[in-house]
Each structure stands twice: as structure tokens, then as C-alpha cells.
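assembly run, all chains below
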Amino acid sequence: MRAALRKLGDEAGAASASPAAAAADRNYTTVLDEHELARWLDRIMQTDLVAIDTETTSLNYMEAELVGISLAVGPGEAAYIPVAHRYAGVPEQLSRESVLEAMRGWLESAEQAKLGHLKYDAHIFRNHGIALAGIAHDSMLESYVLNSTASRHDMDSLAAKYLGIETVKYEDVTGKGAKQLRFDEVDIETAAAYAAEDADITYRLHQKLWPSLEAEAELARVYTEIERPLIDVLGKMERTGVRVDAEMLSSQSRELAESMAAIKESAYAAAGGPFNLDSPKQLQEVLYERLALPVRGKTPKGQPSTAESVLQDLAEAYDLPRLVLEYRGLAKLKSTYTDKLPREINPRTGRIHTSYHQAVAATGRLSSSDPNLQNIPIRTPEGRRIRQAFVAPPGHKLIAADYSQIELRIMAHLSGDEGLLRAFHERADIHRATAAEVFNVELDAVTAEQRRSAKAINFGLIYGMSAFGLARQLGIQRGEAQAYVDLYFDRYPGVKRYMEETRQRAREQGYVSTVFGRRLYLPEINSRNAQRRQYAERSAINAPMQGTAADVIKRAMLEVDRGLADGSIAGKLIMQVHDELVLEVAEAAAGSAASAVAAIMEGAAELSVPLQVDTGIGANWDEAH
DNA sequence: GTGGCGTCC
DNA sequence: CAGAGGGACGCCACT
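ok done. output:
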């Protein structure tokens, strides 16, 4: 009470000597005693929206421990509460336990609105037994929804862009490289200037961005109805993690090493001497200089390429390219997956905890890193073995539920093309149906070759591919590929019209939109540089489809999460791979959960075509497909 | 840090 | 006339 009456900043225990705190529009406090803590508790209880940020010992959200908390209750009105700095001569701090207990009520109150990049901070509080609630705003997501392509959406970039403020960087206070300090080793004064600024800037960014968002009803809905509630769902998925069988992967690593050694010997023989098979540069010399093989493709820089498609071409006639392809395939699986994934297993939980990023992909998709669980192999038999190591715990099953041809369905919806709509309403095999149209044959007369071509055309269209690209993909002449494209547009005139209109709209308004109003700005759509302009045009074609698919699965995730929370579905969401959700479910509940999830996913959007979801149940991820 | 390549959707 | 396939992340070699 006494503390609450004091004037800002004159608390005896409060350090305020840092340069940042001295700036005119900044009033930063370091909270070192109970009086000051009580005063700040008062302030945050009485403030409608409080920016909050945590400082920790690690970027690994499962392992990080709280070092300090910063709060901002208005622009420039911020505090840093150090709770676990440890270095020689550190001043006395409040203990982590006492601060968290004092703040628990506020932190866990859904009515007390918080602002910040809170998916990470929620993990940190959870590590200390606090269930953060009241996640009301995230300025990074505000920026992302306003303009996903504008820049990066980290706080430092946003502060420079929207506020013209050059912030103190993390590495400015910790140093970098081998000498980098852990944050708890940073002296409290320096830490306070950095940490309080983080909360302050977050607050100011929200003040700036939220009105812009509110002024655009469609964007505001994407933010409030999709992105904001998704924060919690992603946090839960990350924390749950996925069980991975380390022994299975390790033995795969050993087998891969043996196969690679054998291939390596054969490759040296074919090359007439040893060289580094992992080096594209050395390989290029051996292939095109020592062995003088024909050049079938070049890199963007004009060098003879050693890319897969080129080597595949050469492999028909020569041994070395074939051996290199085999070697590369195995080396990739080993280094990226079977060697790496076991090291990513959290020893405490026995599971892998990825990070899902909500403000990275310009189209609205999520991304995943550390490790990336969205590029686990599936195409080849050796690759699928890696998925067999993603397992359900005893007594449980994995459910994989994936949208069938969602982007083509969205193209049908967006274009309104009658032929495409009809094909999906009749639940046709869409590639077969396309082949029947393009090659003018009966459905059951479509050959495997024709279906393959039609599939390439369908996917090519989604990506804005040219006849040249299609020719290369199918290994046919450019003229022939052009004829296919012409035939396609002849049979599906709505698609042709849609694509022309989309390019035109992008040129006029500078952006394209998804069905749910998410926007993708394309600043280069009117560029005089043809390459840049064409790139923007392909994005304009692709983004509404990819982005709508992202909206749809995010909506489904929110609904699935509600079902999981209210008990109408048993289990846990554990992964999202763009058009697929993976759940871990008790064995007895697997069937009903799979049906419920499929129903939710299929109902996540009302398009003019039905959405179709295929589900599978298995002891591991491969089996669930 | 960049370029080349390869994995996924 | 060259370049002509959307969105990611990560490994390796090389600078």
C-alpha cells in the first residue's frame, strides 16, 4: 500500500541508471523488493491490457527456466522483475517462487488481458507450474495478418518499421559466439534496459497495429477468429510432443552407413578415384570435366547442374550419376532424419517437441522447426521407415487425417468452373477426370500415362507453371506440353478465366485474398523487371489456394481443440502438416475420434465443393496412412 | 553467410 | 532473348 503511493522510479531499491531508461519517453523500473512488486501488481491489476515478456535461460521452450519478467502498462511505462540472475556480485533479487506466487492469480486469470508473443512465454510459465491465461493480443500476429509479406515479424524489425525505434538487441546484452552469456549471467541493469524495452515496444506496437487491423473487418476476423485463438492450440501441440523410437532410428542410421560405404566404393571406381560425394562442386568437376558427361541442365548461376533431375537424366546411360543419386538419397535420410531426430528427443518427456511458427509463411501456412516435422519423408520405402519411428505410446494409436486434394477443390470453388465442380461433386478421381477431358477419352479408358500427365497439369496449374515447366516435368516437347495446357483451358474455361481475373485483380489492388479474407500483398506485381513480375504473378495464382487451405485447416484445428477440451473427442493433437492433422488417442477411442475429427475437418469451410478427409489409424505414423 | 540440393505439402 | 514451379526448413560445402 505504501509502495502504491510512491512516485514512479524513486523506490530506493529500483535501479534506473541504464541509458535506455533515461530516454525522455521511457520510465523503466527494476523491481528488486516486495514494495515495488506490490506496486506493480496493483498497476497490472488495474490496467486493461498489459504487455508481458519473459527472459529465460534457453530458447528451448521445454527446458528454459525463468530469469526475469517484464511488464508494460502503457507506452514507456515498463518494469523488469529479475528473479534468477546469478553472477559474482549480483544484487539481491526477489525469489522466482515468491514472484510467481504473488503473480499467479493475475497470470492465470482469463479476465486479465495480456499482450505479447505469448506462445513461448506460456511455455515458460508452464515450466514453473503456472497456466498462463488471458492471451488477448500478439503484436507479431497483428503485423503478420496486416501484411504477411512486408518484412520479418520479430519485434526488432517491427520496432524499426512501425515506430522508428532502434531496439537493444539480444546479442547486444549477451554477446555472441562462444563467449555468449546465458541471460541469467547478464547484469541486472543491462538486462532491465533490454527486457523492459521489449515489453514497452510490444505495447507500443499493439497501439499502432490494432487500430489498423480493426479498420479492415476481414483482416480483423482472420486475426481474432483464427490466428489469436490458434496460439493456445499450437502451444498445447508443442508441449504434448510426439513419441519417437530412438533405437529404431539409430539402427536405421547404422544400416544407412553400411549401404553408403558400399555405394561410395563403387562411385570412386566409376569416377576413377576418390572425391567428396557430398560436394556438388567436386561432383560437377568429376562429371563434366574428368568424365566429360553431357550437360543436361545448369544452375541459376550458369554452372553445369548436379541436381536430381539432371542426374536422373544422365543415370540412364552412366553409372556414376546413378550411384550419386543413390548415395545422396541415403545421406539425406541419415543426416537430416535418422541421425538428427534421436538427438531432438527431450530426455524428460521422451518425446520430440517441435516449434510451430505462425508468422513466417506469407500465404498463411504454418511452418515447423527444431526439428521440422513437416518434411518427414514419405515418398520412398526407406523414407517411410522413418515415419515408423513416430509411434503411439502403449495402449494408444495415432490417427492421421488428411484433406484430399484440398487445393484443387479450392480452385474449383474460387473459379466456379462447372466441369471441375461437377467432378468433385461426383467424387471422381480428379486426375483421371482431368485426363479424360484433356485427352478426350472415356473415364475408364484413361491410361496410367495419361493420368500421370493430368496430375502434373493439375499441380502445375496450382503453382502457375508454364508449358516449359510442364514439358520438363513430363519429359515431353514444349509444343506438346503447350497443347495439353491449351486443351485443359479449353475444357475448364472457368479456370482460365479465374486465373486471368486473379492476375488482373492483383495488379489493380496490389494483393490477393483467401476465401476467409486473409491477404497477400504482391508489391512486385507491376514490376518492370519481368522475372520479378512473373514470380509475383505465380504467387498471385497460388496464394489464394494455398492460403485458403491454410485457413481451412486452422479453423479445423480450433474446432478439434474445442472437441478435445470439452471431452467430446478423446485424445490429443500432436502434429499438423499443411493438409493433415495427427492425433494421439487411447486405443479404445481411436475409431470414434477419427470419425469426429474427419467430420470437423470436412465441415471447417462451406465451399461450393465438398471437402473430403481420409483418416487412418495405426501404431505409428506410417501405419496411420 | 550463401549456394546447391533435397525433404515435405 | 533468357528463363520460364507455389510455400517452407535443414544439411553440407565453400567463402
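The radius of gyration of chain A is 28 Å.

Residues 280-281, 299-301, 303, 305-308, 328-329, 332-333, 336-337, 365, 372, 374-379, 383, 402, 407, 546, 549, 577-580 of chain A lie near DNA strand B (CB under 10 Å from a C1').

not gonna interpret more than that til we talk
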